[in-house]
C-alpha cells in the first residue's frame, strides 16, 4: 500500500500484568532492541497515527527508545484488553482503530493492509485462524464503544463476548499469515520463538 492509512489509529495494548512472563512484556527485547519499538516502526509505515495504550504512562518515561511515541493511559483500569480497546476508541480522532497486543513480535503490515481493504461497514473486522477469532489483531469502529462500556459495567471483560451484539467481519488467516498473531506469554514462548526464527 503506497499511501498511509489516515482514517484509522493503530493502538498497541501494553497494559497487561504479564504474570506468566515474570516481567513487563512491553519491554521484551530482540537483539538488544525493544520488540515494541520495532512493532511501532512497522505500523508507522502503514498508519499516520500509532499510539500505545498503557496502564501507566510513566513506565516508558525513562526509556529513551520510546521518546516521541504517544502513550494513552488506560481509562478503564484493571479491565483487561476490553478496557484498552475502549480507551483507544474513546480517545482516537479516527473512525476506526486497529488493535494489536504488545507481545505479538511478527505483525505483517501487508496482512494488516489487506484486512483494511476488506473492511466493508463492519463494526469489527477480526482475523481468525481455524475458526478461532483473535480479537487483539482487529479493526474496531467507534460505534463499538457503547457496547464495550456496557459489558465492562457488567464485568464481562472478554472482547469476544461483545461480538454477538456487533456487526463482525472475519478474515480467515492461512498458515503463513498465522505468524502475525503468535504471542509471547511465557519465557518458554520466547525460547520457542527464538528457535523458530533461527536466533540464538
From TrEMBL:
GO biological process: Mo-molybdopterin cofactor biosynthetic process
Positions of the MobA-like NTP transferase domain: 10-157
Residue sites binding GTP per the record: 13-15, 25, 74, 103
InterPro entries linked to this entry: MobA-like_NTP_Trfase, Molybde_CF_guanTrfase, Nucleotide-diphossugar_trans
Reactions that this protein is recorded to catalyse: Mo-molybdopterin + GTP + H(+) = Mo-molybdopterin guanine dinucleotide + diphosphate
Keyword Transmembrane helix: no
Record GO cellular component, one term: cytoplasm
Residues forming coiled coils: none
Residues where Mg(2+) binds: 103
Protein species of origin: Blautia liquoris
The organism's place on the tree of life at top rank: Bacteria
GO molecular function: GTP binding; metal ion binding; molybdenum cofactor guanylyltransferase activity
Family as reported in the entry's similarity comment: Belongs to the MobA family.
Domain notes: The N-terminal domain determines nucleotide recognition and specific binding, while the C-terminal domain determines the specific binding to the target protein.
UniProt xrefs under Gene3D superfamilies: Spore Coat Polysaccharide Biosynthesis Protein SpsA, Chain A
Protein name: Probable molybdenum cofactor guanylyltransferase
Keyword line: Cytoplasm, GTP-binding, Magnesium, Metal-binding, Molybdenum cofactor biosynthesis, Nucleotide-binding, Nucleotidyltransferase, Transferase
UniProt-annotated location(s): Cytoplasm
The protein's Enzyme Commission number: 2.7.7.77
Function: Transfers a GMP moiety from GTP to Mo-molybdopterin (Mo-MPT) cofactor (Moco or molybdenum cofactor) to form Mo-molybdopterin guanine dinucleotide (Mo-MGD) cofactor.
Cofactors demanded by this protein: Mg(2+)
Pfam families: NTP_transf_3
Amino acid at each position: 500500500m503506497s499511501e498511509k492509512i489516515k482514517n484509522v489509529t493503530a493502538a498497541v495494548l501494553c497494559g497487561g500484568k504479564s504474570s506468566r512472563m515474570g516481567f513487563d512484556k512491553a519491554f521484551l527485547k530482540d537483539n538488544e532492541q525493544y520488540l515494541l519499538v520495532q512493532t511501532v516502526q512497522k505500523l508507522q509505515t502503514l498508519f499516520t497515527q500509532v499510539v500505545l495504550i498503557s496502564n501507566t504512562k510513566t513506565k516508558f518515561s525513562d526509556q529513551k527508545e520510546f521518546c516521541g511515541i504517544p502513550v494513552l493511559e488506560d481509562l478503564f483500569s484493571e479491565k483487561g484488553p476490553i478496557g484498552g480497546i475502549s480507551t483507544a476508541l474513546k480517545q482516537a480522532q479516527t473512525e476506526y482503530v486497529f488493535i494489536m497486543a504488545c507481545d505479538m513480535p511478527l505483525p505483517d503490515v501487508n496482512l494488516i493492509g489487506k484486512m483494511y481493504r476488506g473492511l466493508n461497514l463492519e463494526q469489527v473486522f477480526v482475523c481468525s485462524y481455524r475458526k478461532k477469532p483473535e480479537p487483539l489483531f482487529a479493526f474496531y469502529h467507534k460505534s463499538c464503544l457503547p457496547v464495550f462500556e456496557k459489558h465492562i459495567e457488567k464485568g464481562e471483560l472478554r472482547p469476544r463476548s461483545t461480538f454477538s451484539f456487533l456487526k463482525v467481519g472475519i478474515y480467515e488467516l492461512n498458515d503463513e499469515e498465522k505468524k502475525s498473531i503468535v504471542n509471547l506469554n511465557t519465557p518458554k514462548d520466547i525460547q520457542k520463538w527464538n528457535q523458530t526464527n533461527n536466533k540464538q
